Amino acid sequence: MKRVYILAAAAFLLLNACKKDLTGPSVDDNILNYDIEEIPVTENYVVGAFYTSFGGWNANIKEVPVVGKYGMPNGVLTPGIMPKHIAYGVKAGLDYFVFSFRSPNRDANNFRSDSTLIRGFIDSDGEGQMKFAMSYNFSTGTYGGISASNPIEKDKLKLAQFFDDFRRIVPYLKDAHYQKVGDKPLLYIQNAQTLFSDSNKAIYDTLRSQLKALGVEPYIVGMQDRWTPPARYEIRFKGCVDAIYHQSFSSQINNWDRWYLLPQMMDQNWKYSKDYFDKNFGVDYVPNITPAYSWKINTPTSTNPEYPRTDSGAMFIKLCNVAKMNASSKTRLIMIDGWNNWTEDSQLEPAESYGERYLNIVKKQFKK
Hints:
This protein has helices at about 1-20, 80-90, 110-125, 155-165, 170-175, 200-215, 235, 255-260, 260-280, 315-325, 355-365, and strands at about 45-50, 95-100, 130-135, 180, 185-190, 220-225, 245, 285, 290, 335. The protein is an alpha/beta fold. The termini are far apart. It comes from Chitinophaga ginsengisegetis.
């Protein structure tokens, strides 16, 4: 009889254990299970957009610019286009365009092309409606394959050329049209995480010292590659830059989990990254968002998830609010990638199919 009682008690405990499992964690407990709320604008954000220099129109590009298809051979933009771009940028509430510049020492032809495009902007912006900033297009390829085991200091010529690249642009940094953070010219460094050096802090200290001797104290924003943890590049950023931005999370999405919950995943990543950068590096964070993205233009057979445009622009609106939630309270910088990247369908620029929809979204989301 005693054995019967023991078996009955065991059965009771097992049944109740099963019931507890049935009332365990649910989708409601998931950290990503929340809505992205509309963040009201009580103070204007400082919004920039990357301006793309491209060689031609891919046959797979379906969208057509409202201003018509244009070219920029050797940096010479089709006449009449830049004033229209500036007018549209102002309409969107953009504060500045960011133009890429390549090494005048190691990529001289492209540097001349970049400089020509920037000069075209300055000449077209006679009334000072918009500002511009520059992004140093750094790559290890430009510098002959420097790496963690082959840092830039090992080649004195390359190191000298690196510093000279920045000294060459000082006249631009002093231009009245140039975007500033406070009284400091805003300078982006693309692929900053690949500046392999024995001491990145020493490199940046020398760079700042040389620029200061020429009358310039820049606010430097370094790029970190997309979907990477904030601690990965501590040696490349700590004591080096004033702020960090990520390569666009909302472009080149090749993971379906990220596609389904993109705003929430970006929000959680940025919240953690922003907090980590602030507490451990003492630097600000600059959110970077993209209006749309298509793999099909460059890779028609791609099966990766597409980030398409919609009649309402609902996804982009959510990403605008994620950006506002994670912008620095000190600088309020927001980046959009990009203005005219038609080769990836990530452009903010108006097209015949969607008109000025995305300009209007940006103006409403970031300006009072």
